[in-house]
Amino acid sequence: MAKTNVCIVLAKISLVALFPLCMCNQTNESTSTTASLSPQFYDNSCPKAQAIVQSFVAKAYSDDPRMAASLLRLHFHDCFVNGCDGSVLLDNSETMESEKRSEPNQNSARGFEVIDDIKSALENECPQTVSCADILAIVARDSTVITGGPSWEVYLGRRDAREANLHGSNYNIPSPNSTIQTMANKFYLQGLDLTDLVALLGGHTIGNSRCTRFKQRLYNHSGNSDLDRSLNKNYASMLQKGCLISGDDQNLFALDYARPTKFGNYYFKNLVTYKGLLSSDEILFTKSRDSMELVKLYA
Questions:
Q1: Whole-model pTM above 0.90?
Q2: Domain 14-172 carries which CATH code?
Q3: Which residues does the record give as Ca(2+) 1 binding sites (predicted)?
Q4: Which listed residue (75, 77, 167, 221) is catalytic?
């Protein structure tokens, strides 16, 4: 990928940290407006904040290279529900159902302990200063950088949600089997267009998915015990060895089999050769002429 195109993709991924801020007033705590956000927000109140976050991300990645993708995904799932307000981190209570119980997150979202450790360290350094919502935004950037992606300035000053939105988490976050129109609609509701959709799904250049999320493509795509015709046959055969028709549902497979732990454009190259793992990935190249052209551009 040309350097310019890499920057386009990363600019779109960093956009996740910015676009929902206008919706943060749906939470119960006073929140910052977009105008009050600044990369220098903690320069005086907690000058070591970003360095502390970076050190914990580095350790988490060293202990478990999968964690970078998990942390990036955690931020994305937070931002698609009432904005980037940290609501995905809230636990169940007598009056609230946690977003951790939603279909996209249950037994799937991970990295909460990393965020807890970062928050604890920041509380020791500068009590009651850095929001969990901002921690998630910084962590997403640092997880991208540590896997080989470019960096960007993170605008800070968010306030944390006091309430979760289980329904929003179930409804707003695209699923692995979403159609291109469904995904486009969900992104549109967040103020994002097709270009944003394609670029942001490029975050699947790192990370894994479980067999159960794509098994239907291998064995029963249209309900007739058939293989998804948009799936490369050799790639499908490789997947079938570890994702059997019966069992193996929890086995993990790289979203980008070519370079699973390196941030880059191989995700898009894979789509061009019909080697996208999830249906919601491959349809970017097969179900929309406009999204196909964007995939070609980023590849």
A1: no
A2: 1.10.520.10
A3: 78, 81, 83, 85, 87, 99
A4: 77
